[in-house]
Amino acid sequence: MQEVLSRATTLEEVQTFVEDLRDVYDLEHLVYHSVNSTGGQYAALTYDQEWVQRYLEQGYARIDPVVQGCYRKFQPTDWKALDWSAKGARSFLGEAVESGLGNQGFSVPIRGPSGQFAVVSVNHKCTDDTWANFTGERAADLLLISHYLNEKALQIEGNPERGPTRALSPREKDTLCLLASGANRANIAETLKISESTLRVYIESARFKLGATNTTHAVAMALTHGLIVV
């Protein structure tokens, strides 16, 4: 899927990618929504357009626990961990479900350059156990895809992708490559024959050079810029 997205040159192609990815993962919906520092917005999503129009007309972003929760968070969040206790939030959820949204959701908040903020959300109709298995197996993929989507949308909209401020060292590349392939930190340290504390130094150094907001973002940027190959 990364290769498909890398070939996209228009926002329409990003929309098509989102629709195809929804089908690949057999989800109800997949959404990418970005807001830049001046309030400009872009969204690639699979929601019914009537629901999108209703959402915008009612200004539901003000009460949507997913939007409000992700704006305060840096880590991926399961929707059930958000606060749905307010009457307005419960009413909003009921209306969303009636409009075709599933009972399960998972969102990845992203902080981009110059104050840009984005969210990637996936949504499904299934049991808690089925959803827990899905997110447990796919969380790492969703994190990387979310950052790929954001980097590509920024590139197409005319915001240059942020390249590394300095070249990555061979050890930093090895570290990011192993992270991208799904290895955990203990296994990476063992493979590279270094301590986990030394590994943390390589990761933080790579993040700084890439201008990445977190480790997953660093891996995504390294892949996007062709600095590592998995």
TrEMBL record:
Pfam families: Autoind_bind (PF03472), GerE (PF00196). GO terms for biological process: regulation of DNA-templated transcription. Keywords: DNA-binding, Transcription, Transcription regulation. The keyword Cytoplasm does not apply. Residues 161-226 form the HTH luxR-type domain. GO terms for molecular function: DNA binding. InterPro entries: Sig_transdc_resp-reg_C-effctor, TF_LuxR_autoind-bd_dom, TF_LuxR_autoind-bd_dom_sf, Tscrpt_reg_LuxR_C, WH-like_DNA-bd_sf. This is Transcriptional activator protein raiR. PROSITE patterns: HTH_LUXR_2. The keyword Transcription applies. It comes from Litoreibacter arenae DSM 19593. CDD domains: LuxR_C_like.
